């Protein structure tokens, strides 16, 4: 398997199904609507940005969790008003595009309209399941932070990849 810039993942992805173009959130609008970002990691030294997504209600994703990783990261930004308490940020529109790089403008809703943007020359999207995350997500309005955290995947959660897509642009 040739996964270009993401060679370090090739053995982990060798048994995972490749998404068709119609099922691929990197190419198809709307597939991540109703997913919500849980966490992001940025490695400035290697120019990599990753977003962990809860996909229990996502329109077009198989699995309850996904990871979007962009290298050659040219863009990673969020804008909008946030309260200093845990809040669900729901993706309300998913608009991927390819010019000389891949990017997505992602309108999100938290306590009002917001925006997340991510883009780069190499993009890996992996969907799958985190065991125990098949039920409803936590109620962000009536429980404490520890209970909310227990009801969401995190970077240390066991993740069983089922599908992936890769774009390695020149």
User: Share of helix among residues?
Assistant: under 10%
Report the structural category.
mainly beta
> Mean of the pLDDT scores?
82
Low-pLDDT stretches are 1-5
Q: What is the overall shape?
A: globular
Please, could you describe this protein's structure?
The protein is mostly beta strands and 170 residues long. The chain has one domain (4-168). 6% of the residues lie in helices and 41% in strands. A hairpin with a 3-residue loop joins strand 8 (102-109) and strand 9. The two termini are 18 Å apart. Mean pLDDT is 82; it is low at 1-5.
What is shown here, in short?
The protein is mainly β. 6% of the residues lie in helices and 41% in strands.
Secondary structure elements and pairings:
Blueprint: H1 10-13, E1 17-18, E2 36-43, E3 48-54, E4 65-71, E5 75-80, E6 90-91, E7 95-98, E8 102-109, E9 113-120, E10 122-129, H2 145-150, E11 160-168
Structural features:
170 residues; 5-stranded antiparallel β-sheet; 6% helix; globular; disordered N terminus
């Amino acid at each position: 398997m040739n996964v270009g810039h993401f060679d370090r993942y090739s053995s982990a992805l060798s048994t995972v199904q490749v998404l068709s173009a119609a099922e691929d959130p990197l190419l198809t609008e709307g597939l991540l609507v109703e997913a919500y970002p849980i966490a992001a990691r940025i490695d400035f030294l290697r120019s990599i940005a990753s977003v962990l997504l809860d996909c229990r209600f996502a329109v077009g994703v198989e699995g309850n969790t996904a990871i979007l990783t962009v290298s050659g990261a040219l863009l990673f930004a969020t804008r909008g008003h946030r309260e200093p308490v845990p809040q669900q940020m729901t993706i309300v529109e998913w608009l991927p595009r390819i010019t000389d790089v891949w990017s997505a403008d992602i309108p999100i809703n938290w306590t009002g309209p917001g925006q997340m943007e991510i883009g780069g020359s190499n993009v890996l999207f992996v969907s799958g399941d985190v065991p125990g995350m098949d039920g409803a997500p936590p109620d962000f309005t009536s429980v404490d932070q520890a209970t909310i955290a227990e009801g969401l995947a995190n970077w240390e959660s066991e993740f069983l990849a089922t599908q992936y897509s890769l774009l390695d642009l020149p």
